[in-house]
Protein backbone atom coordinates (compact mmCIF):
# COMPACT_ATOMS: atom_id res chain seq x y z
CA UNK A 1 0.00 0.00 0.00
CA UNK A 2 1.18 3.53 -0.81
CA UNK A 3 -0.40 6.83 0.19
CA UNK A 4 -2.37 8.52 -2.58
CA UNK A 5 -3.25 11.63 -0.55
CA UNK A 6 -3.38 12.74 3.07
CA UNK A 7 -2.85 15.56 5.55
CA UNK A 8 -2.40 16.26 9.24
CA UNK A 9 -4.97 18.16 11.34
CA UNK A 10 -5.72 19.30 14.87
CA UNK A 11 -8.98 20.15 16.67
CA UNK A 12 -9.59 21.86 20.01
CA UNK A 13 -11.66 20.08 22.66
CA UNK A 14 -15.34 19.66 21.81
CA UNK A 15 -15.13 21.00 18.25
CA UNK A 16 -17.73 19.36 15.99
CA UNK A 17 -18.13 19.12 12.20
CA UNK A 18 -14.84 20.52 10.93
CA UNK A 19 -13.67 20.11 7.33
CA UNK A 20 -10.05 20.00 6.20
CA UNK A 21 -9.08 19.51 2.56
CA UNK A 22 -6.03 19.02 0.39
CA UNK A 23 -5.67 18.93 -3.40
CA UNK A 24 -2.67 17.45 -5.20
CA UNK A 25 -1.69 17.08 -8.87
CA UNK A 26 -0.66 13.72 -10.29
CA UNK A 27 2.79 13.51 -11.84
CA UNK A 28 2.04 10.28 -13.69
CA UNK A 29 -0.80 7.98 -14.71
CA UNK A 30 -2.06 5.72 -11.91
CA UNK A 31 -4.17 2.56 -12.15
CA UNK A 32 -5.77 2.02 -8.75
CA UNK A 33 -6.82 -1.53 -7.85
CA UNK A 34 -7.59 -1.09 -4.14
CA UNK A 35 -8.23 1.45 -1.38
CA UNK A 36 -7.36 1.58 2.32
CA UNK A 37 -8.67 4.26 4.68
CA UNK A 38 -6.25 5.98 7.07
CA UNK A 39 -8.70 7.28 9.70
CA UNK A 40 -7.50 7.90 13.27
CA UNK A 41 -9.82 8.93 16.12
CA UNK A 42 -11.64 12.12 15.16
CA UNK A 43 -12.20 11.08 11.54
CA UNK A 44 -15.90 11.05 10.62
CA UNK A 45 -15.58 10.37 6.91
CA UNK A 46 -13.42 11.09 3.88
CA UNK A 47 -14.41 11.77 0.28
CA UNK A 48 -11.87 11.68 -2.55
CA UNK A 49 -12.72 13.26 -5.89
CA UNK A 50 -10.94 13.80 -9.20
CA UNK A 51 -10.80 16.79 -11.56
CA UNK A 52 -8.74 18.40 -14.32
CA UNK A 53 -7.66 21.40 -12.26
CA UNK A 54 -8.07 23.44 -9.09
CA UNK A 55 -5.89 25.24 -6.56
CA UNK A 56 -3.32 22.93 -4.97
CA UNK A 57 -2.38 22.49 -1.32
CA UNK A 58 -4.09 22.26 2.07
CA UNK A 59 -7.12 24.43 2.82
CA UNK A 60 -10.03 24.76 5.26
CA UNK A 61 -13.19 23.73 3.46
CA UNK A 62 -16.88 22.80 3.67
CA UNK A 63 -18.92 19.68 3.05
CA UNK A 64 -19.46 20.69 -0.58
CA UNK A 65 -15.76 21.24 -1.34
CA UNK A 66 -15.66 18.36 -3.82
CA UNK A 67 -14.45 18.01 -7.38
CA UNK A 68 -16.31 16.69 -10.40
CA UNK A 69 -15.71 12.92 -10.38
CA UNK A 70 -16.22 10.59 -7.41
CA UNK A 71 -13.22 8.37 -6.66
CA UNK A 72 -13.58 6.93 -3.14
CA UNK A 73 -15.39 7.43 0.18
CA UNK A 74 -14.88 5.97 3.64
CA UNK A 75 -16.37 6.28 7.12
CA UNK A 76 -15.66 5.03 10.61
CA UNK A 77 -14.34 1.46 10.49
CA UNK A 78 -14.31 1.15 6.69
CA UNK A 79 -12.26 -1.90 5.69
CA UNK A 80 -9.87 -2.39 2.76
CA UNK A 81 -11.41 -2.66 -0.69
CA UNK A 82 -9.59 -4.74 -3.32
CA UNK A 83 -10.85 -4.70 -6.90
CA UNK A 84 -11.34 -7.87 -8.98
CA UNK A 85 -8.41 -9.00 -11.10
CA UNK A 86 -7.88 -6.76 -14.12
CA UNK A 87 -10.13 -3.94 -12.83
CA UNK A 88 -8.72 -0.51 -11.95
CA UNK A 89 -9.57 3.17 -11.78
CA UNK A 90 -7.46 5.21 -14.19
CA UNK A 91 -6.08 8.55 -13.01
CA UNK A 92 -4.18 10.58 -15.59
CA UNK A 93 -1.02 12.63 -15.16
CA UNK A 94 -1.93 16.29 -14.67
CA UNK A 95 -5.31 15.56 -13.06
CA UNK A 96 -5.93 16.76 -9.51
CA UNK A 97 -7.06 14.64 -6.55
CA UNK A 98 -9.03 16.33 -3.76
CA UNK A 99 -9.36 14.87 -0.24
CA UNK A 100 -12.23 16.24 1.89
CA UNK A 101 -11.95 15.20 5.55
CA UNK A 102 -14.92 15.53 7.89
CA UNK A 103 -13.54 15.71 11.45
CA UNK A 104 -15.37 15.66 14.80
CA UNK A 105 -13.86 15.99 18.27
CA UNK A 106 -16.45 15.00 20.88
CA UNK A 107 -13.85 14.75 23.66
CA UNK A 108 -12.77 17.16 26.41
CA UNK A 109 -9.19 17.20 25.14
CA UNK A 110 -7.51 18.54 22.00
CA UNK A 111 -7.21 15.97 19.21
CA UNK A 112 -4.80 15.69 16.31
CA UNK A 113 -3.96 13.13 13.67
CA UNK A 114 -3.02 12.34 10.11
CA UNK A 115 -5.78 11.11 7.79
CA UNK A 116 -5.67 9.98 4.19
CA UNK A 117 -6.14 7.25 1.65
CA UNK A 118 -3.72 4.49 0.65
CA UNK A 119 -3.96 2.62 -2.65
CA UNK A 120 -2.75 -0.45 -4.45
CA UNK A 121 -1.86 -0.01 -8.09
CA UNK A 122 -1.30 -2.11 -11.20
CA UNK A 123 0.37 -1.49 -14.53
CA UNK A 124 -1.57 -0.33 -17.57
CA UNK A 125 -0.86 -3.67 -19.26
CA UNK A 126 -2.70 -5.48 -16.45
CA UNK A 127 -5.91 -3.44 -16.82
CA UNK A 128 -8.83 -5.17 -18.54
CA UNK A 129 -11.69 -2.92 -17.31
CA UNK A 130 -11.66 0.68 -16.08
CA UNK A 131 -13.91 1.40 -13.09
CA UNK A 132 -15.51 4.31 -11.27
CA UNK A 133 -17.72 4.90 -8.20
CA UNK A 134 -21.19 6.42 -7.81
CA UNK A 135 -23.81 6.86 -5.05
CA UNK A 136 -27.44 5.72 -5.00
CA UNK A 137 -29.85 6.88 -2.30
CA UNK A 138 -31.78 9.93 -1.12
CA UNK A 139 -31.49 13.22 0.76
CA UNK A 140 -35.20 13.13 1.66
CA UNK A 141 -34.78 12.27 5.35
CA UNK A 142 -37.00 13.36 8.28
CA UNK A 143 -36.75 10.84 11.13
CA UNK A 144 -39.25 11.27 14.00
CA UNK A 145 -37.74 11.38 17.48
CA UNK A 146 -40.13 8.81 18.97
CA UNK A 147 -37.70 5.88 19.28
CA UNK A 148 -39.58 3.78 16.71
CA UNK A 149 -38.04 2.27 13.54
CA UNK A 150 -38.40 4.63 10.59
CA UNK A 151 -37.46 3.96 6.95
CA UNK A 152 -36.87 6.17 3.94
CA UNK A 153 -35.87 5.24 0.41
CA UNK A 154 -34.64 6.63 -2.88
CA UNK A 155 -32.76 5.63 -6.00
CA UNK A 156 -32.61 6.02 -9.74
CA UNK A 157 -33.30 4.48 -13.14
CA UNK A 158 -30.07 3.47 -14.87
CA UNK A 159 -29.22 4.95 -18.25
CA UNK A 160 -26.68 2.29 -19.24
CA UNK A 161 -25.46 -1.21 -18.46
CA UNK A 162 -22.54 -2.00 -16.15
CA UNK A 163 -21.16 -4.46 -13.59
CA UNK A 164 -21.00 -3.50 -9.88
CA UNK A 165 -18.28 -5.31 -7.95
CA UNK A 166 -18.68 -3.74 -4.48
CA UNK A 167 -21.31 -1.93 -2.40
CA UNK A 168 -20.61 0.49 0.47
CA UNK A 169 -23.54 1.54 2.71
CA UNK A 170 -23.14 4.96 4.32
CA UNK A 171 -25.42 6.34 7.04
CA UNK A 172 -24.82 7.87 10.48
CA UNK A 173 -25.38 7.05 14.16
CA UNK A 174 -29.20 6.64 14.14
CA UNK A 175 -29.06 4.11 11.30
CA UNK A 176 -29.80 0.42 11.97
CA UNK A 177 -30.26 -1.26 8.58
CA UNK A 178 -29.85 -0.83 4.81
CA UNK A 179 -31.53 -2.72 1.97
CA UNK A 180 -30.67 -2.33 -1.73
CA UNK A 181 -32.80 -3.75 -4.54
CA UNK A 182 -32.85 -3.67 -8.33
CA UNK A 183 -36.15 -3.94 -10.23
CA UNK A 184 -36.22 -5.18 -13.81
CA UNK A 185 -39.43 -5.90 -15.67
CA UNK A 186 -41.45 -5.53 -12.49
CA UNK A 187 -39.36 -8.10 -10.61
CA UNK A 188 -37.30 -6.94 -7.62
CA UNK A 189 -34.01 -8.61 -6.63
CA UNK A 190 -32.36 -7.94 -3.27
CA UNK A 191 -28.68 -6.95 -3.61
CA UNK A 192 -27.98 -6.06 0.03
CA UNK A 193 -30.00 -6.57 3.21
CA UNK A 194 -27.77 -5.96 6.23
CA UNK A 195 -27.74 -4.36 9.69
CA UNK A 196 -25.74 -1.15 9.90
CA UNK A 197 -23.36 0.07 12.59
CA UNK A 198 -21.87 3.58 12.40
CA UNK A 199 -18.57 2.35 13.84
CA UNK A 200 -18.18 -0.44 11.26
CA UNK A 201 -18.94 0.94 7.80
CA UNK A 202 -17.68 -2.02 5.84
CA UNK A 203 -17.51 -2.68 2.11
CA UNK A 204 -19.47 -5.55 0.56
CA UNK A 205 -17.41 -6.97 -2.34
CA UNK A 206 -19.44 -9.12 -4.74
CA UNK A 207 -18.05 -12.58 -5.48
CA UNK A 208 -19.91 -12.37 -8.79
CA UNK A 209 -20.32 -8.78 -10.06
CA UNK A 210 -23.92 -7.52 -10.22
CA UNK A 211 -25.06 -7.13 -13.83
CA UNK A 212 -27.15 -4.00 -14.29
CA UNK A 213 -29.01 -3.14 -17.50
CA UNK A 214 -30.21 0.20 -18.84
CA UNK A 215 -33.71 0.79 -17.49
CA UNK A 216 -33.10 -1.07 -14.20
CA UNK A 217 -34.41 0.73 -11.12
CA UNK A 218 -32.05 0.75 -8.14
CA UNK A 219 -33.52 1.54 -4.75
CA UNK A 220 -31.81 2.09 -1.39
CA UNK A 221 -33.94 1.76 1.77
CA UNK A 222 -32.49 3.01 5.06
CA UNK A 223 -33.90 2.33 8.53
CA UNK A 224 -33.23 4.39 11.66
CA UNK A 225 -34.18 4.60 15.34
CA UNK A 226 -34.17 8.14 16.77
CA UNK A 227 -34.95 8.43 20.48
CA UNK A 228 -33.81 12.03 20.94
CA UNK A 229 -37.33 13.51 21.09
CA UNK A 230 -36.56 15.75 18.10
CA UNK A 231 -36.75 15.04 14.38
CA UNK A 232 -33.48 14.37 12.55
CA UNK A 233 -33.02 15.36 8.92
CA UNK A 234 -30.43 15.03 6.17
CA UNK A 235 -26.98 16.45 6.86
CA UNK A 236 -23.27 15.83 6.97
CA UNK A 237 -22.96 15.96 10.77
CA UNK A 238 -22.89 12.87 12.99
CA UNK A 239 -26.03 14.37 14.56
CA UNK A 240 -27.83 14.36 11.19
CA UNK A 241 -28.37 11.46 8.79
CA UNK A 242 -27.59 10.18 5.31
CA UNK A 243 -28.92 7.33 3.14
CA UNK A 244 -26.46 6.30 0.44
CA UNK A 245 -25.03 3.18 -1.15
CA UNK A 246 -21.65 3.60 -2.82
CA UNK A 247 -21.34 1.37 -5.90
CA UNK A 248 -18.01 0.54 -7.53
CA UNK A 249 -18.62 -0.43 -11.15
CA UNK A 250 -17.21 -0.99 -14.61
CA UNK A 251 -16.97 -0.17 -17.47
Describe the structure in your own words:
By secondary structure, this protein is mostly beta strands. It is 0% helix and 59% strand. It has strands at residues 2-11, 18-25, 30-38, 43-51, 57-60, 69-75, 81-82, 87-91, 96-103, 111-121, 129-130, 132-138, 142-143, 149-157, 162-170, 175-184, 187-195, 204-212, 217-225, 232-233, 243-250. The strands form five sheets. Strands 1, 3, 7, 8, 10 and 11 form a six-stranded mixed sheet that branches. The protein starts with a strand and ends with a strand. The mean pLDDT is 94.
In short:
This protein is an all-beta fold and 251 residues long.
Helices, strands, pairings?
Blueprint: E1 2-11, E2 18-25, E3 30-38, E4 43-51, E5 57-60, E6 69-75, E7 81-82, E8 87-91, E9 96-103, E10 111-121, E11 129-130, E12 132-138, E13 142-143, E14 149-157, E15 162-170, E16 175-184, E17 187-195, E18 204-212, E19 217-225, E20 232-233, E21 243-250
Parallel strand pairs: 8-11
Antiparallel strand pairs: 1-10, 2-5, 2-9, 3-7, 3-8, 3-10, 4-6, 4-9, 12-21, 13-20, 14-19, 15-18, 15-21, 16-17, 16-19
- Kindly report the average pLDDT value: 94
Largest sheet: 6 strands, mixed
Radius of gyration based on Cα positions:
18 Å
Low-confidence parts lasting 5 or more residues at pLDDT below 50?
none
Protein traits:
single chain; 251 residues; mainly beta; 6-stranded mixed sheet; 21 strands
